[in-house]
Amino acid sequence: MIIAAPTTTTTSKATGKETSTGKEASTGKETSRPWEDYSSSSSEEDRCEVKPSKRVKCGDNGITRRQCKKLKCCFRHRGHGGIHCFHPKPKAKSKKTPSCHKEHMIPANECKMEHSKRKECGYKGIDESECKRKNCCFDSSVPGAIKCFFPSSKATSSEEHRKSTASSEEIEKQKAPAPAPAPAQKPAAAPAPAPAPATTTTPTTTTTTTTPTTTTTTTTTTPTTTTTTTPTTTTTTTTTTTTTTTAKTTTTTSTECSMSPGARVDCGYSGVSESQCRNKSCCFDSSIPNVKWCFYTQSQVADCKAVPPGQRTECGSPGISADQCRKLNCCFDSSISGVKWCFYSSSQAQAQAQLQAQAQAQCSGPPSKRKNCGNPGMSANECKNKGCCWDSSVPNVPWCFARN
What we know:
Pfam families: Trefoil (PF00088). The chain is 26% helix and 7% strand.
């Protein structure tokens, strides 16, 4: 025979809550309960305070207190509809407070560097708050310079990352001259002082990179080859200036770029870099603040000024900005009203005239034999951009038609 331990139930007059004593209360062992998955500060007794009408039955009819506790449920003698064993109330779920983003404070000395050495950290038009959220430096006091840039401690790492993600062709070009410097630098050390006066006397001959006399001072390793190439090499000092050509495009000479800062004509656009400027065969000088750093050479300025205002050939579309015009390598002058502001230079206009003459010859012929090349409602620019001919002077025939 199994004799259950005696249990007594008492009711508190102050609270009206029932408490039990016996083996279940004296063991002191803690058992896991299904409502402990929630985080709350309410006690177990509070979770059992459920209105009789809202109690959810736990177990069968006639269940004892001990059996109810084994099911980890609440037990009350008084209940709605005889429900003495019922499920407790669940705890409210805890809410995690979001952590605030803290901006990394960059030391001021890491943002002090030359303007030409700044590495872009953001994008064009980025504001100061967005730039600092990227843990980068921000300085908009210098016009034309990069505003959002990496600090000095991160500039080297970003440059290494950029090189590691470069194309395989660029990596081969960078690695190709790596094994060559050891043998090439030793013989080049002796003739190095010889071309120095040549570069200073006639720097305008940088375009003569294909002349054979350049090999006498730059690539040859023995002095005897100078007598076999040209006996007059002592007088043709201009050929030695080709050693200064290091960029992909022809390097502009000092005489072409020598002009007063106020006479500079803008060749670039806002935020143009030195490499982008020189790729347009323009001059770059960032040593003077608050002036144009990327500007046309003297010959380029003369080429633009050689076109009379009334004879300008439009380059681009009406309403084009100065930056958009210069990206097309065209001239821009908004000082005269009633004429085209973005136009081809004198040399470009001649090339355009030749192309137009060829196009006009291909577009000539009887109007009745025209073959439609466009769609109804197509504009002249849309037709020409499609490579077709345009002529709206003759009615009842296609205005946009194929070339001969």
